[in-house]
UniProtKB/TrEMBL annotation:
Annotated ranges, domain Mycothiol-dependent maleylpyruvate isomerase metal-binding: 25-166
Tagged with keyword 4Fe-4S: no
InterPro entries: DinB/YfiT-like, Maleyloyr_isom, MDMPI_metal-binding
Protein known as: Maleylpyruvate isomerase family mycothiol-dependent enzyme
Origin superkingdom: Bacteria
One protein family per Pfam: MDMPI_N
GO molecular function list: isomerase activity
Record key words, sorted: Isomerase
């Protein structure tokens, strides 16, 4: 069965996922990491073009400030320029803030994250999970408003991924235990139906993703009433297309930390080739 939305119709986003308790745990790992860095570590280049570790930390601070200012205080913030697309807008405003925070010392950046994080936790605690999202999650679908739980989960993945980018840059082990990573994978899988939207198939056609590793699991999407919807896979189901990949490959694919071609080389694709190739273009960030 597919998950139902508030109206009783099938939900395009799947069953609710409450990630609110994970923010303090992810932030604790982040702060421990930042406080352990040597001065040279802060200038290490990251996978984000043109950004070093200091810039990533500044970007995280921007995320904290932006969500508190908008979600708690109702502040409008930066506005779109004429004919500016969402990716262009984000590139511009994120770049301006990263450049500004280069004036801040690593200690100041870390202290600000530690100070503001609990305020953000308190904000999430006040939000009804099934209420409309503060910011829609475009990569999970654009034809229906996103629920708040998906918006909050998306923010959790944003923080977790940026922490991993810092860890990669300074050659530190990832904070990738199942407790922290599995909700990231589960959230990213909410992009699968939207990823498949251009692939018309008969109702009942399914696509399955198996993610191996301690944080992995099994996810699927099914064609229903002319659209793709999340659907829990059943043991006896035979999907039309099947992708098996490991947990590290999957989150990097979803955030384009690796190319689509590299992700496919690391994966096993069986069944309907067009469906497997489309499924492996899954993207869970704005780009």
């Amino acid at each position: 069965m597919t998950a139902l939305g508030p109206s009783g119709s099938p939900s395009p986003f799947g069953p609710p996922l409450d990630t609110r308790a994970l923010f303090p745990r992810e932030r604790h790992a982040l702060l421990e990491l930042l406080r352990s860095l040597d001065p040279d570590d802060w200038s290490a280049p990251t996978v984000c073009p043109g950004w070093d570790v200091h810039d990533i930390a500044g970007h995280l601070l921007n995320d904290y400030l932006r969500r508190l200012s908008g979600g708690r205080d109702g502040h409008r913030g930066a506005v779109f320029e004429n004919d500016e697309t969402l990716p262009a807008y984000l590139t511009r405003v994120n770049g301006v803030f990263a450049q500004a925070t280069r004036q801040l010392s690593p200690r100041v950046l870390t202290d600000l994250l530690a100070h503001l994080g609990p305020q953000l936790d308190a904000l999430w605690a006040t939000v009804p999970l099934e209420a409309p999202a503060g910011v829609d999650v475009s990569w999970a679908g654009t034809d229906e408003p996103s629920p708040a739980w998906l918006d909050i989960a998306r923010e959790y993945t944003e923080f977790w991924v940026h922490q991993q980018q810092i860890r990669d840059a300074v050659a530190r082990p990832g904070a990738d235990g199942p407790e922290l990573l599995r909700p990231v994978i589960d959230t990213f899988m909410r992009a699968l139906p939207h990823t498949l939207r251009t692939e018309a198939r008969p109702d009942g056609t399914s696509v399955r993703f198996d993610v191996t590793g301690p944080a992995g699991g099994r996810w699927s999407a099914i064609r229903h009433a002319g659209r793709w919807l999340p659907s829990p896979p059943t043991p006896d189901a035979r999907p039309a297309a099947h992708v098996t990949t490991d947990q590290d490959t999957f989150w990097r694919l979803a955030t384009r930390g690796i190319t689509i071609e590299e992700a496919r080389r690391r994966s096993v694709l069986t069944g309907d080739e067009a469906l497997t190739r489309t499924a492996t273009t899954l993207l869970a960030v704005v780009a």
